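ZP: hey, is the flavin-adenine dinucleotide complex queued? I don't see it on the tracker
AM: it wasn't, my bad. submitting now with these inputs:
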Amino acid sequence: MILSEAEFHEAATLEQASELMARWGAESRFLAGGTDLLVDLKTDRYRVGHVISLNRIAALRGISPANGGVRIKALTTINELAASAIIRERFPAILDATREMATPQIRNLATVGGNIASAVPCADLPPILAVLHASLSLWSSSGERVLPLEDFFIGPRQTVRRGGEILSEIFVPYPPPRFGAAYARFGLREANAVAVAGVAAGLLLGKDGRVVEARICLSAVAPTPKLVTAAESLLVGKVLDRASLDRVAAAAMDASQPISDLRATADFRRELVGILTRRALVTAQERAAGGKQ
Ligand SMILES: Cc1cc2nc3c(=O)[nH]c(=O)nc-3n(C[C@H](O)[C@H](O)[C@H](O)COP(=O)(O)OP(=O)(O)OC[C@H]3O[C@@H](n4cnc5c(N)ncnc54)[C@H](O)[C@@H]3O)c2cc1C
């Protein structure tokens, strides 16, 4: 694999990065950790004349509490995310995803922003972040816009990101009491295998143990991370028991749009959706009941 020729630019500020991207447009790509981009360039998935590194931009680094939640800057690596005290204490469901991703070496380079911006359907962070009601900030010299994470994706490797926009940060609100979430995924081996299917689930329980709000998002079984509203509404007002789990798992399977590829058939993926939906919901309920979110 040989990297095709491209001019390398290092932006020192958001303004510079945005201007360079606006100048070169489709002829260019931002570089964060490079774990997706460099593979794509080396395998000729696409060719670009310009690579714009974001890595010197200090404004894109760090994790901090803010306005009732946590602000995760786009260049935060997966290992930094997993080691963060706020994430470990408040968002164990995010750790379900980080511990399954790739290898420790890749997690040292791979960024949260890159995992989202690449819009690969099997990416592990988008489903659990969508369940946690995360929002994204897209920054350009003409302003910043904020949108719910699930509205970012329009198809495989396609997003609503425009011209010079940079994914600058992800905001995740602290969940209310009696909320729990979890992410369950299946890969072909325990390490360094992308998800064949994944399901993130979140449950808000009432004092009586009944479900007040449910959120379920599928991964790797649709062109984009897919919130399954039909399955969610089946749970509201119910307790999580075998019958309600069966109904929701069936609805999630119906809502999935899996494809067959070298990793699995569409039928196998659909079966996985049912199993992983049950697993994610049961863990979410345990966390909600145990006050662990
Ligand atoms: C061997 C291997 C195993 C992997 N396993 C997994 C896995 O298990 N789970 C998983 O989810 N992923 C996996 N990946 C994919 C990849 O590591 C992650 O998606 C990673 O988080 C991408 O981040 P990055 O910083 O490396 O992105 P880059 O490769 O630098 O960029 C990816 C894309 O996003 C764009 N981009 C990056 N940052 C921004 C930004 N701030 N604003 C706008 N656009 C931006 C780039 O232009 C590029 O198009 C694996 C990759 C490899 C090579």
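AM: back. Residues 266-289 form the longest helix (24 residues).
ZP: great, adding it to the tracker
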